[in-house]
Write a structure and sequence with these properties.
alpha/beta; TIM Barrel; eight-stranded parallel beta sheet; about 15% strand; globular
Amino acid sequence: MRQKVVVGNWKMHTTAAQAGELAKAVVEGVDGEDRVSVVICPPFPYLAHVGQIVNGSRVAIGAQNLYPEKEGAFTGEVSPTMLLDLGCKYVILGHSERRHTLGESDAFINQKVLFALAAGLDVILCVGETLEQRKANQTEALLDRQLTQGLVSVSAETLSHLSIAYEPVWAIGNASHHATSEQAQYAHVVIRRRFSHLFNDHSAQAVSIQYGGSVKPYNAASFFSQHDVDGALVGGASLHADEFLAIIRCAISEAQSTGAKASCGVCAR
């Protein structure tokens, strides 16, 4: 069985003091739990500080981005070597905000994926469609394109260090549009099918696919109960220790259910 993974993407939030307090609360709340993998991704300036706090705990640290070079004249960028030096295990690549706000192409994201994997980082590759693309029935074609182009030249030997995060852009922080767990499951099946075409059936069944569309304590259990949803990439809720830990507890409950539909009281409230 694929292990559930819960990732907190803090984006451009927190001060140093807030980051430290949040990290400590998550470490204490997880307290040796090994049935679910927990990752927090603070802003670059706080990676060292947070890394010291999570060191030796069950909580891993990740970065929100990188530049695909070891070093050089790339003002304002951060290399995989620097991330590893700070204790990072994971890196988020291809996030919708970088694709749509900063204009990153599939080809550039692919460079990052290859460089990160070669450096020894675990990559969380984000894919997902906008509302306009969904309304135009382009979801499957868009996911196929982002995966196919984003994973060019990725070797099968590195797939154990790669996971996918499906983030429907139309459902992120949008009060008017919420994805249902069934919609998430369908998209994850599409992703797994494309993965099978790109690699093989075994790799498709082994790859972890997290859902990343406004996951909250009240809806986490419904997403985690879906067969092909292997965890969550959490945005806003990861900035509040109680909410983030509630989501983690939902993942633990699902892990304990050994395939049966989880009954998670904290998520039903």
